[in-house]
Amino acid sequence: MEIQLHDITKRFDELVAVNDLSMTIKDGEFLTLVGPSGCGKTTTLRMIAGLETPTDGVIEFGGEDMTYASPQERELAFVFQAYALYPHMSARKNMSFALEHTEVPEEEIEQRISETASMLGIEEHLDKNPPALSGGQQQRVALGRSIVRDPEIFLLDEPLSNLDAKLRVKMRAELQQLHREIQTTTIYVTHDQEEAMTMSDRVAILNNGDLQQIDTPEVVYSQPANRFVAGFIGSPSMNFLDCRIDSAAGAVQTDAFAIDAPSGFSGEAATLGVRPEELSIVPPREGDFSAEVTVFEQIGAYNIIHLAVDDLDEGIVAQVDGSKHFDPGDTVGVDIDPKYVHLFDAADEAVYNPPLASEESTAIA
Amino acid sequence: MSVTDVLTSDQDGFPGEQLVRYVAVSLAALFVIVPLYWMVATSLKDPSQIGVFPPTLVPSPATVEPYFAAWETGPWGQWFLNTILISGGATVVTLAIATPAAYALARFDFPGSNPIYLLFLGLLMVPAQILLIPLYNLLSSLGLVDTRLGLILVYSTFFLAFSIFLLHSFMTNLPESLEEAARIGGIPEWKIFVQVILPLVKSGLTATGMLIFVFTWNEFLFALTFLKSEQLYTISVGLQSFQGIHGATVYNQLFAMSTLATLPVIVLFALFSEQFIEGIAGLEMQ
Questions:
Q1: A51 at the B interface (CB within 8 A)?
Q2: Has residue B1 got a pLDDT over 80?
Q3: Which fold has domain A3-222?
Q4: How far apart are the CA of A77 and the nearest CA of chain B, in angstroms?
C-alpha cells in the first residue's frame, strides 16, 4: 500500500511538532523516520496510524483520503516502543485478540499464530502472559501480534530501544529478514542513525518538525542535503571546520590549512565537512597539516583519535585502522582527499558532496 | 528465621527497629481486636455475667442461647435480606455508572470533561447530612421514600463521586498504548472497554466495590430516615430497635445480632483481601 503525506502539519498548542511534511512511501518499501528526540518522527507515525489527527494536510493510503479515518478503519499494524501487550492475556491471546473481531475463521487464526510463532521462535511461550516473558520475547510477541493480522502497512515505533545492545543487533537483522519475507510497506521510527542506515530502503531525516532529506542510506551518508543531516548520519560525526573559498588559488582555506578545492567546484562555502573515516593519518610533517593526538579510543576493528590543530578552534576526530595505535601527545600528519570533502554554504545547505561510491564503481566498470 | 531473630534484627535501620514495629503493629491490632472480642464474648454470656464487676473476660458458661432469643425479637431474616439487597444494589448501581464515567473522564477529551471531573471532586466535599432534607423531598415526590430502591439510589448518589474519583485514578494509571494497540487492531471501543480496560482495573473495582458495600452495610442515619416500614429495615436500623422495644438494653442479644451482622463483612474481606490490598496499593503507587 502506498502512503502519501501532503503538507502535514501538527501543532500541540504553541508547539509545532511536524511542519508542512510531504512524502510518499512506496508500496512495499521499508522507510525509516530518524531524528533526535522531539523532531516529530513519532508524531508523524501516530498521524499515519490515526492516533493523532493532523492540524493541516492530507494523508492518503493507496490514493484514498484517510486523514480523519479512525485507527480501526485504517487496517494497519503498529508496534509500540513499550510493546503495549495486554498483560492479562496469554501471548497467544494477545496475537489472536484482534483477529477474533474479524471474519478470519478460527482455524486460520490458529494456523497463522503457529506459523508466526515459529518464524519468531516463540512457540513455547505462547501460553505465558507478557509479564512472565523477557524483553526480547515480549518484543517478538508484539511483532507477532502485528504480523498475524497480515496488514497492508506496518508501523514500528522504536521497537528495539528497550532491548540490550546484543539483542538489538540480532533483532535488527531479523526485522530486515522479516520485511524481505512479507514485503509489507513498513515505516520504522528510530533515533538511532545506525538502525536507520542498516535497515531501510530509504531514510527520512527530521529535525524540529522539518523534513531535512529523504533518500537511500547511501545518498544521505555520501551526499547529505545540509549540515544537520551530515552531522546526524554517521558515527563518529562528521568534522565541521569554518572555511572560505579562495577562488584565485582554487583552494578551500581554513584557519589552519588550505586544501585544493574539489575539482569542478566553484562558488562560495562557509563550512568544510570531512568524515572521520575520510581523513588519512600520515607521518608527521606530511599531509595537509599537522595535529596533536589528545585522546585515543581503542575500538578494535578500527580506532578513533581526537586531534588538536594549532590555530583551529574545533577539534578533529579521525578514524584509523584497528592495527594503528597512538598515544596522547603524539604528533601526526593529516591528509584530506579534496574529492571526499563536503562543503556547506552560510545557510548550512550542501554546495558540494562527493560522488556516490556506487556510481563511481559503475563508472569504472 | 526464629522469632528472636526477627525481633532483634536491625537490618532495616536502627537497632531494635523491628521490635518497635512489631509493638506498634500489635497495639494497632489490639485496638481493633479487643472491641470485636468483647462483642463476641458478650454475645455468648448468659444475663448473670453481664454488667458485673470485675467483668468476666471469658464467658463461663458460654451459651448460644442469646442468638436464638435475639433472632425471635424481629424479622431478622428479612432485615438481613434487605441489607444484602440494598448494599449489593447500591454497589452494583454505583459501579455500573461510575466505571464508564471514570473511563470517559480519564481517557476522552470532550468539551467540558475537565469541569465535569472537577464538579465530581467538589461533590466529595459536601457533607452528606446537608443533603438529607433535599433528598428526602426529591424521593418523596418520586414516591420512593420507604422503598429499598429509594435507599439504593440515595447511597449511589453519595458514592458516585467517590467511586468516579477512585476509578479515575486507576484508569489514568493504565498505559494509553494498550487502548491504542487495540484500536489499531480494529477492536470496537466498547469491546476495548470491556475486554481490555475492565480486566486491568479489576482490583480497583473490587476495592471500590468493597468500600461501598461495607459502608452501606453499616450505614444508619439514611436508612433510619428513608425506611419507615419495619419489614424494610436494614440490620443497623434493626439493631437500634433492641433499645426501643425492651426498655433496658439486652446486651447479650444485641451483641449476638451485632456479631451476625459483622460476619458477612469479615467473610467478604477474607474472600477478596488480596485484590482489595492490591487495589489500595495500586492507588498508593501513584
A1: yes
A2: no
A3: Rossmann fold (3.40.50)
A4: 6
Q: Which helix (H) or strand (E) covers residue A245, if one does? A: strand A244-246
B246 has a chain A CB within 8 A of its CB: no
Q: Which residue has the cell 446537608?
A: B130
Per-residue model confidence (pLDDT) at position A135: 87
Please answer yes or no on whether B180 and A98 come within 8 Å at the CB atom: no
Give pTM, 2 decimals. Answer: 0.81
Q: Where are the domains of chain A?
A: 3-222, 237-352
CB contact under 8 A, A75 and B186: yes
Is the Cβ of A102 closer than 8 Å to some Cβ of chain B? yes
Exposed (0-12), middle (13-18) or buried (19+): which is A104, by Cβ within 10 Å? middle
The distance of B285 to chain A (nearest Cα, Å) reads 18
Task: Provide the ipTM.
Answer: 0.82
- pLDDT by residue (tens digit) across B161-184? 999 999 999 899 888 999 999 999
Q: Domain segments of chain B: what residues?
A: 3-68, 69-285
Between vectors from CA A119 to CA A115 and to CA A124, what angle results, nearest 5°?
80
Query: Which H or E run includes A118?
Result: helix A106-120
Segment A275-286 shows an average pLDDT of 92
Q: Is B69 on the interface with A (CB under 8 A)?
A: no
To the nearest whole angstrom, how far is the Cα of A168 from the nearest Cα of chain B?
22
Pick the CATH number of B69-285 from 3.40.50.720, 3.40.50.800, 1.10.3720.10, 1.10.486.10: 1.10.3720.10
- B194 in reach of chain A (CB within 8 A): no
The answer to whether A268 and A243 have CB atoms below 8 angstroms apart is no
* Contact call for residues A343 and A242 (beta carbons, < 8 A): no
Q: Let me know: does A235 contact A317? Beta carbons within 8 Å.
A: no
Cell of residue B246, nine digits = 425492651
Which chain B residues touch A86 with a CB distance below 8 Å?
178, 181-182, 196
Q: Which CATH architecture has domain A237-352?
A: Beta Barrel (2.40)
Contact between A69 and A3 (Cβ < 8 Å): no
Q: Do B185 and A80 touch (CB under 8 A)?
A: no
Q: How far apart are CA B59 and CA B41, in angstroms?
A: 6
- Is any Cβ of chain A less than 8 angstroms from the Cβ of B182? yes
C-alpha count within 13 angstroms, C-beta hemisphere, residue A63 = 0
